[in-house]
Amino acid sequence: MAPLVIILSFFIPLFVKASVVINEIAWMGTSVSSADEWMELKNETSSEIDLNGWRVEWKGGEYGVTFDTTKCPLGTIVPAGGYFLLERTDDNTVSNVQADCIYTGALRNEGEDLVLKDSSGGKVNEIKSAGGWQAGDNTTKETMQRQGNSWITGSSTPRAPNVGAVLGRAPHTQPPSSAPALLRIGRQWPQAFSRADSLSSPSPGH
């Protein structure tokens, strides 16, 4: 029986929680300007993490920001359970909250794949949204917020816990093509699994 258990372990996916996740995305900008886009990372661990040399990128790496002291005026250390706010272009994007880091490059309203990498280039978290953002509202400017492995639409909460004030109001009535059909639950669905959120056996080509 023991050998059988060992053999089966190679075929059972092993899910590992990412240490830092992309937690909130204002892909639609703000009520002041559609160019006022921002993103928020969250440290999911019980220890501080230094993001120096880490990177968020999209469009296959054509756009992105590598965290260092020149772009991150408050430093690159995120406390346990803390947040890291990325603002586009300047620190006026979120008027009442100071940015941890400044980046350039727009997010398409139609969707983007976002990848968070550590200083060695390894994927830590990945959001598969090229086929359409899972949540967020371009009219009300409510943001796309993480809730476990799902995404919901809610009032923006830069560098603060997600409130999830409004459910099921994503502008897209269908999840992106990367979301498994069996996981679709109305207009709220779990994020498609990726290497960022799990370690599993190789799957067939996408």
Summarize it:
This protein is mostly beta strands. Helix content is 4%, strand content 27%.
Report the uncertain regions.
4-15, 165-206
Number of helices: 1
* Mean pLDDT figure: 79
Q: What spatial order of strands do you see in the largest sheet?
A: 8-7-2-1-11-12
Distance between the termini: 35 Å
Describe this structure in words.
By secondary structure, this protein is mostly beta strands. Helix content is 4%, strand content 27%. It has one helix and twelve strands. The strands form three sheets. It has a six-stranded mixed sheet with strand order 8-7-2-1-11-12, with no helix packed on it. The longest helix is centred in the first third of the chain and has 8 residues. The chain is globular, with a radius of gyration of 17 Å.
Reconstruct the topology from this structure.
Elements: H1 2-9, E1 20-26, E2 38-43, E3 49-50, E4 55-58, E5 63-66, E6 77-78, E7 83-88, E8 101-103, E9 113-117, E10 123-128, E11 143-147, E12 150-154
Parallel strand pairs: 7-8
Antiparallel strand pairs: 1-2, 1-11, 2-7, 3-6, 4-5, 4-9, 9-10, 11-12
Give me some keywords for this one:
206 residues, mainly beta, 1 helix, 12 strands, globular, disordered C terminus
